[in-house]
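Q: I have 300 residues here and want to know how they pack in 3D. Can you give me a structure?
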Amino acid sequence: MAKITTLDAVRIHRQNPDAIVAAGEVVDLRFVSGHSLSLRAAKLFCLLVQEAGVNVAEPVQHAIPYAVLNDTFHLSRDELAEAIQELHSTTVAVELVSQKGRPFLKSGPILSDVEREPDDLDDAEIRVEFSPAMRRVIADSTHWAAVSRRAVLAFESKYSLRLYLYLGLRVNLRKSSEVIALNDLREILGVPANRFERWQDLRRFALERAVAEINQLAGFTVAFRAIKRGRRIVSVELAWGKKEQAGLIEAQRELDRPRVGRTARRDGVVETIAQERYRLAESLAQAGLGRTSEPDHEPQ
């Protein structure tokens, strides 16, 4: 994981078939409707970006065989069609700066044009074109991140995928922590406005799930602590760091294993994962980071 330049993005795409190169502004997209993409649609979006490659910002149609998308995705064509329609109908917004240096908000759908061949064709393909808004965001990007296709497809929570992409832009930077207001954290994770309204629920069912999956599958580790103002939680401090060689090897082994049993292994059955978390906890404790201990409750 690294922050990379546009030229690096082209090189990585050509040399590493596992790499998905994402523009930073795309990672930071906000959803106008208040509802983020489903996990299925979010994964498909990452795959479409990878398949479009260096031409992702061009006003061209990208033809992709179903077989290519389903090589590791394993969805039916109807499920893929539903995910494509979600990308076609979802409106996103991003803050940009004009050539005159004036900030503005640009919005539009993710995909502006979609063509789907009949399902009974063995070599059926879909043809998509990214919307002008998406192409402008990508073309104007000045910071990029390379993320793992295998990790993207392995996540079982959309909150994990969103946080993984967000942190992918920040690993390898000089800073290793960031304080995020609670409302901003909800947007980063893609939590709908009416869901997990209490901190206890947001922590347990979104943030902790995301942190656990990232620590198990990604090339870095992450931890958090809640920050209070009075008795209210107002923000969260995230801290991250690269895994040591043993942690990287274990993450790759986990990606090679069947998904069955992954939750049990994530909960501490695999000793190397527990050791990795312990190392991170020690380093965070030295830096003054920890976790809050509010009781857990089921979401309302």
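Q: Anything worth noting?
A: The longest strand covers residues 232-242. The longest helix spans residues 199-217.
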